[in-house]
Amino acid sequence: MSFTDKARNKADELTGAAKERIGNATNNERLRAEGSTQQTEAQARQAGEHAKDAGRDVRDAFTR
Predict the structure, then answer these.
(1) Contact predicate 33/23, CB 8 Å
(2) Distance between CA 14 and CA 47 in Å, rounded?
(3) Separation CA 32–CA 21 (nearest Å)
(4) With 90 as the cut, is the pLDDT of residue 23 above it?
(5) Would you tell me which of 12, 21, 49, 62 could form a disulfide with 1, CB atoms 3.0–4.6 Å apart?
(6) How far apart (Å, rounded) are the C-alpha atoms in residues 41 and 15?
């Protein structure tokens, strides 16, 4: 996974967390849900990237 992908996913995750906190503070259900969704999507992308990295590591172990 490239550094830019990691940074983008982390930024999305942090933005989602901020939206969720602001939604909680202002009692805004839409903003709270949007933040939660954004966090979950960023975490899912991050997990997918980790799985791809693990697959590459396994492939590389067998080709050496």
Answers:
(1) yes
(2) 16
(3) 7
(4) yes
(5) 49
(6) 12
pTM of the complete model beyond 0.90: no
Q: Are 13 and 42 in contact (CB under 8 A)?
A: yes
**Cα-Cα-Cα-Cα dihedral sign, residues 30, 32, 18, 46:** negative
Convert the pLDDT of each residue in 43-52 to its tens digit.
999 998 888 8
As a whole number of angstroms, the longest Cα–Cα distance in the chain is 56
Chain position carrying tokens 């791809």:
52
Residue with tokens 């909680």: 24
How would you classify residue 27: left for phi > 0, otherwise alpha for psi between -120 and 50, otherwise beta? left
Mean pLDDT to the nearest integer, 29-43: 96
- Residue 1: band (very low, low, confident or very high) from pLDDT cuts 50, 70, 90: low
